[in-house]
Design a protein that fits this description.
single chain; alpha+beta; 60s Ribosomal Protein L30, Chain: A; six-stranded mixed β-sheet; 6 strands; about 25% helix
């Protein structure tokens, strides 16, 4: 293990989160209930991001970069409506949104986030 590297929720294939040199790296977060529409799936994924960032000692105002993967770009506007309500006012991070075939056909979105730790975390 690299000195100073901390991994969280480690499985056989991946860790849900790693922290190194005051930077938090999240694995791709996907919906837990894939029966929801894009707005519901986006809310679920952002709630997961919030929980992991809180566990690390930071929040969405400290996101350095977000990459959003959409199964269908037709969902872009509905996803953005949820994102815009969630993102910290005045702290919208750099972001990329791309269309991708996701690992499960019923997933509509996957989000990968990198964030800075807050002072004192």
């Amino acid at each position: 293990m690299t000195q100073g590297l901390r991994r969280f929720h480690v499985g056989d294939r991946l860790s849900e989160m790693a922290i190194f040199q005051n930077v938090v790296y999240l694995a791709g977060q996907v919906p837990s209930d894939a029966t929801k529409d894009i707005a519901g799936q986006t809310r679920q994924v952002l709630a997961m991001v919030d929980r992991l960032l809180a566990e690390a000692g930071t929040d969405n105002a400290h996101i350095l970069m977000a990459t959003l993967y959409l199964a269908d770009l037709a969902d872009y506007d509905a996803m953005n409506a949820v994102w815009d309500d969630w993102v910290a006012p005045g702290d919208a991070p750099p972001r990329a949104t791309v269309q991708a075939r996701l690992a499960r056909p019923d997933w509509k979105i996957e989000i990968v986030v990198t964030a800075a730790l807050t002072a004192g975390a």
